[in-house]
Write a structure and sequence with these properties.
The protein is built from 7 helices and 17 strands. By secondary structure, the chain is of the alpha/beta class. α6 (316-325) packs across α7. It is globular and about 65 Å long.
């Protein structure tokens, strides 16, 4: 039983954490892991075409990342403050859950000013509550329409690259830290397995007769939160909003009932579908919040293939991959990935588990 956090530790050289994406989305490397034989192949991502046939189905998370990182200044002192928008609490009142840094300077009642490059104040927010040591609830003081307000947020915000990418967000990240099928705005992190799919590759998969099912799970920062308990059964995931509509359910269940392959693209797609399993072990429509944490041993119900990035040691994402691919096989695959200098994390290379 692999239920201890320390089982999922390995030494990852820091220089293998990708700082930039590959030039072309579908030309990152792809390790193919065969669960039945233990065989491991080294391919390029667009070779994924060769592993799927007419009637198979892919499940994509179509969440869209919003520019959640803002830089402002505190009233009176002018101290620089980073504000990370986590989620909107009340649309009409413009209330948001945020993280602030440095947090010790920010108290209830403080006003924060957000300016353009010419130091003209564009937005003002007031701190109305403390939620955690770094967490605050803020209210934006804005009289315009909702559309105008969102335009200002998009103008001021930057792409919320995760902290292991050690550089400020650049212009290229606006496009590349977003999947080509992103539609529903609400995530503060990209569903990174989906970043490898180009429009051309999707078209070629479609021509081959492969079905696409889209669901939405808005990824929060909890995805990157470290696990601080040794006993995995005691770890609590942050809840994230998800929605699976009838259209997606039909695509997936048609493939499943026809004994075709169903491939979950990413851990967020996998968590969503495993939260929405019918009594007959088929997918069902669902909407709500999921805090499902998948760790070995776990019986998967819907997908029999999975695309994933290469994740950090002891992360909830890496632990799920071990549950799906088999602990020994995935740990061996990760050692091979390090030896072969695969690129890890959000902008890194891919793994296909079949």
């Amino acid at each position: 039983m692999r239920t201890k956090l320390s089982h999922f530790a390995f030494d990852l050289p820091q220089d293998l954490i990708a700082q930039y994406p590959e030039k072309n989305r579908d030309e990152s490397r792809m390790m193919v892991v065969h669960r039945d034989t233990g065989k491991i192949e080294h391919k390029v991502f667009k070779d994924i075409l060769g592993y799927f046939d007419d009637g198979d189905a892919f499940i994509f998370n179509n969440t869209k990342v919003f520019p959640a990182r803002l830089y402002g200044r505190k009233e009176k002192t002018g101290a620089k403050i980073e504000v990370f928008l986590l989620r909107e609490l009340n649309n009409e009142a413009r209330l948001w859950d945020v993280l602030v840094d440095p947090a010790r300077k920010i108290r209830v009642g403080n006003k924060l000013y957000f300016s353009d490059e010419h130091d003209n104040d564009v937005l003002v927010a007031e701190v109305v509550d403390n939620t955690t040591s770094r967490g605050r609830t803020i209210r934006f003081l804005y009289d315009g329409t909702d559309e105008e307000f969102r335009k200002e947020l998009n103008f001021l915000g930057t792409t919320p690259l995760p902290k292991f990418i050690n550089r400020p967000a650049e212009e290229l990240d606006k496009e590349r830290y977003q999947t080509v099928f992103a539609k529903n705005v609400g995530a503060v992190a990209a569903p990174t397995a989906g970043l490898h799919f180009s429009r051309e590759l999707l078209k070629r998969l479609e021509i081959k007769g492969i079905g696409f099912a889209e669901l939405t799970l808005h990824i929060g920062l909890g995805t990157f939160r470290s696990i601080d308990v040794e006993d995995l059964s005691k770890h609590k995931m942050d809840a994230e909003y998800f929605q699976i509509l009838n259209e997606a359910v039909e695509v997936v269940n048609r493939a499943k009932l026809g004994r075709h392959r169903v491939c979950a693209v990413g851990t967020t797609s996998m968590r969503s579908i495993e939260t929405a399993v019918s009594a007959e072990s088929l997918l069902k429509p669902a909407e709500g919040w999921t805090n499902k944490f998948i760790y070995p041993p776990y019986e998967f119900n819907i997908a029999d293939a999975m695309v994933s990035n290469l994740h950090l040691p002891k992360s909830s994402l890496m632990i799920m991959i071990c549950a799906f691919g088999g602990y020994e096989l995935i740990m061996e695959a990760y050692q091979q990935a390090i030896k072969e200098k695969y690129r890890f994390f959000s902008y890194g290379d891919a793994m296909l588990i079949i």
